[in-house]
């Protein structure tokens, strides 16, 4: 989980963009707007800044009340009253936050950021850093003394975290790999050699040579499929699309939602509404949902590995790492595709063709069924196959591939799944058999001469649920055993509902505790009198095991709990803070929540944060490429509808 060397990114030099009317106020910036922003900034007083670089260019999210008003009014073919962009640039070694008004092409506000941490690294910076060793004679000497051919080496930049330094400059460490004889670049680490690069001056500041470690061989490392499309799916003419994409709006069965994209989060699902056939009304479920941060700490404290504690979303960006999806491999033949747009380090628009795919998934599962044998002389069987709608993207962050799915079900559920694939970050070692290992290796032997270092993946989702309206509460319904009275039974369980009142109370570790987590609209009831709600169905429990005073843990302290609920605040979206590169833990979800420990979250607009966690102690099957390992969560209606909504479709 480190770098992104994107070959699929296309810099758009010629823009033939149809004058596009905004279909939705949360539409991502289009290439024309990105060019406009680049032009405004490079012709402003910022142009004189030394080494002006664009680190973040995104829609400045309009206020929720304005968006909701616009959506509920019937003025949807009039354009939204304002359109703004948020830009973070660096120049003259300073970070500047700028808000632009895109309607009149003007800078609305600017603010120099002086706090800790840095904005995401740009692709240009990463590529420049990766090339530096090849201009260095010292590097040539170091690798030739190892008997290696410099033309067969690839170096990748790794972010370096923060370990208590009082001044943390922008820097990366390069690790280098030997490509000879393999396409699996990460499988041949040149262990013992790392290169510290100062990003501000773009110069090598140090070669760290810990001595030679045997280079793992190339044999058995390739992972390419024998043919381009290993299992071509026959074109099925019956799979007629039953969804409609209009701009970034998607309509399918009883769902309507908006699909956005930015360099940081990747896919963003917004304003998801579900049609209630009984009420004859579209009802709100999810105002905005996206991956907020990803924390990947490696469990190797040795001098060459200790700093590998990545915050992939904040340091690199999931959208920045989005790859072009391959039809029939990444998405089935009935998929529709959307391109992704973002700004490069020079501010110019870049396109990731086919960054997102949308398709109906014929799961082969049963949506519901029943066989009734209780009617004399008859057997009645009825049911429906499960067909869902999936929105997918893949972020390839260096060695790992994160497959991110949002799956909409006609039952009213939204399921988010993250699949891990790609190749392991392995550490070269002398061992060719596990029996030889007598010391602590920080991971098991996964292939000859390779240790698969233990590590975690914590993928934190930002979920601004608006269950049938903005004002919601967070309820923990505890299942508790009770002694039975005057019954042959001795015990039973019952549900004790507890509304969690403050951000402090709503910070949860979920394990064996039998409880249901519900986002409830306390102002709405079903006809039967139950409170309208959605339930968070959590996946396998995993929280960070690092000690609280460990520096990576200080930076990602929110990973000690899987669930947080905070009062809605538009500027709180990135769980490890916006400035995640070299951050010191002074911003982010845990800090906001601590600041507001006593803040009520009852009958208020609230946001939920859920972390999908994996503890990964690798095994041999993860080499040379890992079979997809998935986890996720489901948001499932609980007394939201009067009855099973599938029957009304
Ligand atoms: C939308 O705009 C078009 C022309 O711009 C107009 O003909 C149409 O009536 C409008 N629709 C609504 C619902 O306002
Ligand atoms: C080094 O590798 C390059 C590129 O693969 C190759 O052209 C060259 O012959 C190699 N040099 C030596 C000395 O093996
Ligand atoms: C920034 O500009 C200075 C000269 O103005 C140059 O020495 C330095 O290498 C530049 N840094 C980068 C990252 O381009
Ligand atoms: C919203 O969040 C920002 C960033 O954490 C903070 O500065 C601001 O005070 C918050 N606003 C409210 C009303 O809490
Ligand atoms: C929260 O409330 C407790 C008890 O009333 C109080 O002691 C504490 O100082 C409050 N914390 C903050 C941050 O307001
Ligand atoms: Cu892993």
Care to describe what's here?
InterPro entries: Cu_Am_ox_TPQ-bd (IPR049948), Cu_amine_oxidase (IPR000269), Cu_amine_oxidase_C (IPR015798), Cu_amine_oxidase_C_sf (IPR036460), Cu_amine_oxidase_N-reg (IPR016182), Cu_amine_oxidase_N2 (IPR015800), Cu_amine_oxidase_N3 (IPR015802). Pfam families: Cu_amine_oxid, Cu_amine_oxidN2, Cu_amine_oxidN3. This is Amine oxidase. Residues 24-110 form the Copper amine oxidase N2-terminal domain. Its EC number is 1.4.3.-. With 649 residues, the protein is mainly beta. Among the domains are: 2-113, Nuclear Transport Factor 2, Chain: A (Roll), CATH 3.10.450; 291-318 and 355-426 and 452-648, Beta-galactosidase, Chain A, domain 5. It contains 7 helices and 31 strands. It has helices spanning 31-42, 64-72, 123-131, 137-144, 312-315, 551-555, 589-595; strands at residues 10-11, 53-59, 84-91, 94-101, 106-113, 153-159, 171-178, 189-198, 203-209, 243-246, 249-252, 255-262, 266-276, 281-297, 309-311, 336-343, 349-372, 380-397, 400-408, 414-422, 426-428, 445-447, 450-452, 455-465, 471-483, 491-500, 515-525, 531-537, 563-567, 604-616, 626-638. The strands form 4 sheets. The chain has a 20-stranded antiparallel beta sheet that branches. The protein has a 4-stranded antiparallel beta sheet with strand order 2-3-4-5, with helices on one face. Mean pLDDT is 93; it is low at 1-8 and 13-20. Bound molecules: 2-acetamido-2-deoxy-beta-D-glucopyranose (5 copies) and copper (II) ion. One 2-acetamido-2-deoxy-beta-D-glucopyranose (NAG) binds next to loops.
